[in-house]
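quick q for whoever's on today - can somebody do inverse folding on this one?? i tried earlier but teh output was garbage lol. tokens:
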């Protein structure tokens, strides 16, 4: 194969693609390998059109029929009167209530009858629209103008009480309850109020959005008057706000703010032991004092339920189900916290708990207040040491789609964990006459963190946790909220700190007691069973063990690291520190070990994947030549995608300098084409499969909406991932260079195995009371457009230059696509075609355009063939003034897999942002290997005014019609891609001499933009098309194309499920993507053995002796395992020679038959036995630093 690009590294391409005879293929799907080169042909007899696609909006919330207890709404004034006692809602019943399935097949089931309050009455399409360029309803829950910094919009008090808008009327009634207080208090007028609220927005940078907010929310507000700002002084206004509470308290005026949840400065004490120093009791030990800043938890919760966002809280849990079709069974949906098993089980226990007749609140309806904790140490300076350790509280009843938005103000700061500074050494020296050891400082840090939480969990909170908290909900009715902690999200170091474990000890997992030496059994049956059987449980026995150890330390003067302490606590890797959650809430039924959730950001993206990526770089470095330089160059050539989904890679990706977690995520999503061909053939296949499985696991783990099928697929992906990692470690002895590279950093893989084990908790979604936790990191910013294009030659494609503006307002979410109506950039077709007559891209441009327009004008339904009209019929299509109007951008709205409204922006002048997919008409009847999509690249976005004359015309009035001029891709048929083969879909351009290489597409047929990554190992070619400035506009090289492209299936969650099938919101493409269900790994099929058809398919796969995707070394391994009699589980999961070992086992195993991390199971291999408080190079490299 001839390659003309040095970047492809022809010397590193150790294997060529499999050559097969040209397959029978239809449409742009006619791409195949042939001889030494790749040929694209179109062997169909009749032209094919893309299959008709009809976009569907996400469904509205379910309808709840009125009940007999619903109050009439005739007298709205009386209902809003605060003096009228609100009747308690109907009590819960034991009869379940099920909503009707919507058009997507989704329905809910409330176990205890119809809920008395739901937020669905306030729902709008804007609430589920996520793109920044979607036109949102200003009164929707998702719209947060600048005034929400301080509270309600002062304009709302001017609305009449008879308004039809319940929200506005409700706000009017709330304002009426404080008649002596203006809505803009504490400021003197609305103008100052708006200006100060804009100033106190959370953003600390100037941006276009902030400027727009200043103009629209402040300067253009109807109540803003410049005269109100005469004498304005920002310092005075801030001082007025700071002392406002004191002023209104003296005047006995009710305040619009809640001052009970204000920040408080408190002092906490921690007892300080010393080796050899005895005390009569722990209470007599010296106390070290530390100041903390915090807020009262109960007051923060009350304040959260008084905020405007509270009207969108889901008060009562429900199970969500999805029934794709009438002949398919319904399956469970896991999405929000209040649809998860944990919330539902806690709510059931609340309802079953006996209610005392003496309880004054027993008559109130009970509900659960789910509390979710986040914390992470944050560096405040790039060159300094300033840092903060905030603790955040989130209300689980709020949708995660709202929680992740900074503009929603969903994060409630409750405290800042202080850092133990050098004053503790001074205190220790003055008290005991010697310096504290590093072991003692580690112990004091643990004590400090638990003392902070012990102070936060005060008596008021414990009482509310046990007996409930009276809260007034959005309907104005008092209910009793029972507090429950659901999750505690933190990185591994903080999990160890809060769970009271030794760092990287023999039982380092905060959720289970699986031995560290067994972590490489990841994904095996034994591993899955051990996780369930050995769950950590907080009980009296654990508390008593800690108390015994502390008595030895304080009363006997025993050192913290003494063997006597280890004998008491070492079996479970505990430390002698009391846990605040256990002390306060164990009697209330809390097992604090269950709070710690998977942290994908730190444990997978900055942990497992980063360590794997570095390991692959070490191997490339050991192999020598210029592999690292080629890898860096390939990453630089990857185009961006979306609005920050894939960002531009730095010049030196292998250096890993100043990278965030999102950057590591991008490295993984684009890794397969980059690493292709850089390893010897056998290792190249192993690495490809490993990267594919890492991408698969990562995509499943980050889904925001799971079904039972995707949960099962995640579990089977975990099994395959463990097998891939073990296979990666078992490098053949013949390749001593790679063997050395893998063995050189065994400790890194020991730490990595811990992160893999912890991250694997994602796979037990159904078994472990799954509550989906979204990644709290929100991507902001837009793609950086490269304006330094080569303008030395005349641009021959009719596109809008970058420097030229184009009017394109925000897009209503109801639309499928949006193109500007601007008519400034017009092109005379006659002149343009005459000027570019030599360009092969415009061959038969006008006849094909009129064929396309005429078929749409006649409203011909798709029947499989594109009609070729006669010249006379084409003359009946008149393009007014022979002019078309070109545009910069096509915005395409789509419904995501999780029933949200997303948007893609396609721009033919930005490399990588013009590729799209449409539905394919391929079926099993017309294609041996049907594929649901066709792929193309937009060369131009146009609209024109069209008149249809002649006998078939329905109207001779001009009609504006939009169309895209595109260049088609074809699928590479060899080798076969897919989930079973662990290969990305590969595309190439249809050759230019084919009559269907170029064409026109109705924008309404576009499903989504796609991310195409060049197949760098195959280089460039000139064979598809001669030099064509039109076909390659926007690219510096107009003479060559990349031979192949890979489809970025893992670029985002929605894209992965479009190539996997099973997306709940993908109803328009569901029938087409059913073919993907047959492309499954064997483990994916084994997880659902109850389906007869899948079982038959599994048997067929098992009996297939000629598996083209089975590697030769895999065949040898299977034969060797069968001859050696290895048990069935070890053969199935790829575990060779792994035997369950006890902690103190001294048995020896053949290192070549075991993962490298188990070759020498000692402390040097597995990292220190400390707690992570000191510097550790392993964890520094894995993304954690010094605490």
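ok took a stab at it. sequence:
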């Amino acid at each position: 194969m001839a390659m003309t690009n040095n970047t492809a590294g022809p010397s590193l391409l150790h294997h060529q693609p499999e050559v097969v005879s040209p397959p029978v293929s239809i449409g742009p799907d006619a791409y195949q390998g042939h001889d030494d080169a790749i040929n694209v042909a179109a062997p169909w007899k009749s032209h094919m059109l893309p299959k008709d696609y009809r976009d569907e909006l996400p469904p509205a919330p379910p309808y709840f029929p009125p009940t007999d207890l619903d109050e009439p709404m005739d007298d709205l004034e009386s209902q809003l009167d605060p003096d009228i006692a609100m009747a308690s809602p109907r009590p819960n019943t034991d009869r379940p209530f099920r909503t009707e399935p919507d058009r997507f097949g989704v329905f809910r089931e409330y176990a205890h009858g119809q809920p008395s309050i739901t937020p669905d009455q306030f729902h709008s399409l804007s609430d589920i629209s996520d793109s920044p360029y979607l036109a949102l309803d200003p009164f929707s829950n998702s719209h947060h103008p600048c005034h929400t910094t301080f509270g309600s919009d002062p304009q709302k008090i001017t609305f009449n009480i008879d308004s039809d808008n319940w929200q506005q009327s409700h706000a009017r009634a709330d304002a009426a309850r404080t008649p002596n207080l203006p809505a803009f208090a504490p400021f003197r007028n609305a103008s100052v109020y708006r200006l100060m609220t804009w100033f106190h927005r959370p953003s600390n940078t100037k941006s276009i959005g902030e400027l727009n907010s200043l103009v629209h929310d402040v300067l253009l507000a109807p109540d803003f008057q410049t005269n109100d700002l005469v004498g304005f002084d920002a310092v005075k206004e801030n001082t007025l706000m700071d002392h406002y509470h004191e002023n209104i308290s003296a005047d006995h005026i009710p305040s619009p703010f809640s001052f009970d949840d204000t920040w408080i400065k408190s002092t906490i004490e921690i007892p300080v032991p010393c080796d050899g120093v005895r005390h009569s009791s722990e209470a007599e030990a010296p106390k070290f004092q530390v100041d903390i800043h915090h807020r009262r938890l109960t007051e923060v919760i009350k304040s959260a339920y008084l905020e405007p966002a509270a009207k969108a809280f889901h008060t009562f849990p429900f199970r969500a189900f999805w029934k794709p079709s009438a002949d398919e069974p319904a399956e469970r949906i896991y999405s929000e916290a209040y649809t998860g098993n944990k919330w539902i089980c806690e709510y059931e226990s609340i309802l079953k708990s006996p209610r005392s007749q003496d309880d004054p609140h027993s008559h109130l309806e009970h509900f659960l207040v789910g509390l979710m904790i986040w914390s992470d140490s944050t560096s405040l300076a790039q060159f300094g040491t300033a840092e903060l350790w905030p603790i955040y509280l989130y209300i689980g009843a709020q949708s995660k789609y709202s929680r992740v938005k900074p503009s929603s103000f969903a994060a409630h700061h409750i405290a800042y964990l202080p850092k133990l500074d050098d004053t503790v050494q001074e205190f220790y020296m003055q008290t005991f006459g010697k310096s504290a050891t590093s072991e003692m400082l580690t112990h004091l840090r643990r004590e400090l963190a638990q003392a902070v939480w012990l102070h936060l969990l005060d008596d008021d909170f414990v009482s509310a946790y046990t007996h409930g908290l009276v809260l007034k909900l959005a309907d104005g009715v008092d209910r009793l909220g029972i507090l429950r902690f659901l999750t505690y999200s933190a990185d591994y170091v903080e999990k160890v700190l809060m769970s009271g474990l030794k760092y990287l000890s023999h039982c380092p997992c905060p959720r289970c007691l699986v031995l560290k030496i067994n972590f490489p059994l990841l994904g095996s049956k034994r591993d899955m069973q051990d996780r369930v059987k050995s769950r950590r449980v907080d009980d009296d026995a654990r508390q008593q063990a800690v108390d015994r150890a502390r008595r030895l330390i304080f009363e006997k003067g025993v050192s913290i690291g003494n063997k006597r302490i280890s004998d008491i606590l070492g079996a479970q890797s505990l430390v002698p520190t009391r846990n605040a959650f256990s002390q306060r809430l164990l009697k209330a039924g809390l097992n604090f070990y269950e709070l710690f959730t998977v942290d994908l950001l730190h444990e997978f993206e900055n942990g497992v994947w980063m360590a794997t990526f570095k390991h692959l770089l070490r191997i490339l470095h050991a192999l020598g030549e210029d592999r690292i330089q080629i890898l860096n160059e390939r990453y630089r050539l990857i185009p961006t995608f979306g609005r920050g989904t894939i960002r531009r890679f730095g010049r030196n990706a292998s250096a890993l300098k100043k990278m965030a977690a999102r950057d590591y995520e991008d490295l993984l999503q684009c890794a397969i084409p980059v690493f292709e061909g850089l390893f010897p053939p056998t290792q190249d296949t192993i690495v490809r499969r490993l990267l594919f499985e890492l991408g698969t696991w990562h995509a499943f783990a980050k889904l925001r909406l799971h079904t039972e099928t995707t949960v099962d697929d995640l579990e089977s992906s975990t099994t395959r991932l463990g097998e891939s990692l073990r296979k990666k470690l078992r490098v053949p002895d013949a390749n001593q260079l790679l063997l050395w590279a893998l063995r050189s950093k065994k400790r890194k893989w020991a730490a990595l195995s811990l992160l893999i084990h912890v991250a694997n908790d994602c796979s037990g979604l159904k078994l472990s009371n799954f509550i989906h936790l979204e990644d709290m990191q929100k991507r902001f910013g837009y793609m950086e457009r490269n304006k330094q294009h080569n303008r030395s030659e005349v641009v021959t494609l009719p596109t809008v230059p970058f420097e030229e503006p184009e009017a394109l307002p925000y897009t209503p979410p109801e639309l499928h696509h949006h193109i500007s109506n601007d008519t400034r950039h017009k092109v005379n077709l006659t002149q343009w075609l005459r000027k570019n007559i030599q360009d092969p891209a415009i061959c038969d441009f006008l006849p094909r355009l009129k064929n396309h327009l005429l078929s749409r004008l006649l409203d011909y339904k798709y029947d499989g063939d594109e009609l070729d009209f006669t010249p006379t019929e084409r003359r009946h299509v008149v393009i007014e003034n022979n002019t078309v109007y070109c545009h910069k951008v096509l915005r395409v709205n789509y419904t995501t897999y999780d029933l949200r409204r997303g948007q893609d922006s396609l721009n033919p002048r930005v490399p990588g942002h013009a590729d799209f997919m449409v539905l394919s008409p391929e079926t099993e009847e017309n294609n041996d290997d049907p594929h649901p999509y066709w792929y193309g690249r937009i060369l131009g976005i146009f609209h024109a005014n069209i008149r249809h004359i002649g006998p078939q015309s329905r109207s001779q009035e001009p009609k504006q019609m939009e169309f895209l001029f595109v260049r088609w891709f074809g699928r590479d048929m060899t080798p076969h891609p897919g989930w079973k083969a662990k290969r990305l879909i590969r595309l190439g351009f249809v050759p230019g001499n084919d009559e269907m290489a170029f064409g026109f597409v109705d924008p309404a047929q576009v499903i989504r933009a796609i991310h195409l990554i060049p197949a760098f190992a195959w280089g460039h070619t000139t064979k598809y098309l001669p030099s064509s400035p039109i076909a390659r506009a926007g690219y510096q090289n107009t003479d060559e194309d990349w031979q192949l492209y890979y489809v970025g299936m893992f670029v985002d969650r929605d894209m992965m499920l479009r190539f996997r099938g099973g997306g709940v919101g993908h109803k328009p493409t569901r029938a087409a993507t059913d073919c993907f269900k047959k492309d499954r790994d064997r483990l994916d099929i084994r997880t659902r053995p109850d389906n007869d058809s899948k079982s038959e398919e599994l048997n067929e796969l098992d009996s297939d002796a000629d598996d083209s995707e089975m590697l030769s070394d895999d065949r040898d391994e299977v034969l060797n395992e069968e001859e050696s009699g290895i048990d069935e589980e070890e053969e199935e999961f790829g575990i060779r020679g792994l035997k369950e070992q006890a902690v103190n086992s001294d048995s020896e195993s053949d290192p070549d038959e075991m993962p490298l991390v188990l070759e020498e199971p000692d402390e040097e291999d597995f990292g220190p036995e400390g707690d992570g408080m000191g510097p550790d190079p392993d964890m520094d490299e894995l993304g954690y630093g010094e605490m």
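fwiw The chain has a mean pLDDT of 77. also The longest helix spans residues 600-623. so keep that in mind when u check it
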